Amino acid sequence: MTNTSRPRPGSDARGGAGGRGPLAVFDLDGTLADTAHRQKFLERKPRDWDAFFAAAPDDPPLAEGVALALEHARECEILYLTGRPERCRKDTEAWLAAQGLPEGRIRMRRNDDRRPARRTRLEILRELARNREIRVLVDDDELVCEDAERAGFTVVRARWAAASEALKVAQEREGRT
Fold first, then answer.
1. Digit-coded pLDDT (tens) for 65-119
2. Which domains does the chain have, with CATH numbers?
3. With 0-12 CB in 10 A as exposed, 13-18 as middle and 19+ as buried, what is 64?
4. Which of 25, 27, 87, 114 is most buried per CB count within 10 Å?
5. SS3 of 151, please?
6. Using CA atoms, how far apart are residues 30 and 62, in angstroms rounded to an integer?
7. Which helix (H) or strand (E) segment is 25 a member of?
8. Do you know which Gene3D superfamilies this protein is assigned to (predicted)?
């Protein structure tokens, strides 16, 4: 995943841009964004990844996840950690802004990165934790959550959206989201 980011203006009590305050790390798909309308593209053989990601700007927000992000933004810097490929950055930034979500850096998967989500997310969390307090990880992927908890991170399991079996396979076996 790449470490380019959406800039955070100024600094504030949470540590501001590049600050030292705690981080609240939020997944996007299935946590903040409802992917139900585009999961059909993963149920085909072969899976239509281009169509799956092209439909992301039309994702409805998940109210529970949005409320949690807004709540954590009062005390933490928000970092969005997604398995979406880097080529989706502009659409992702526009979607976050349109939903009224807090500004924050976005860590996205390199376009050619196919490692399992549980491996990449834990690697990034450990990297971040070397210099920052990770207050919480909010994610819908059970395997990511299990590994993060075993590694000592505080986790909120985003169980407010139904994920298809095809999406679960995509996250873990195909390293696509």
1. 999 999 999 999 999 999 899 999 999 999 999 999 999 999 998 877 777 777 8
2. 23-172 (3.40.50.1000)
3. middle
4. 25
5. coil
6. 8
7. strand 23-26
8. HAD superfamily/HAD-like
The tokens describing 95, both together, are 């979607």
Give the integer Cα–Cα distance in Å for 88 and 66. 20
pTM over 0.85: no
Q: Which residues contact 58 (CB under 8 A, 6 or more apart)?
A: 37, 38
User: Would you state the structure tokens that stand for residue 45, as one six-digit string?
Assistant: 């053989």
Name the residue type at position 53: F
Q: Is the dihedral of CA 104, 27, 41, 38 positive or negative?
A: negative
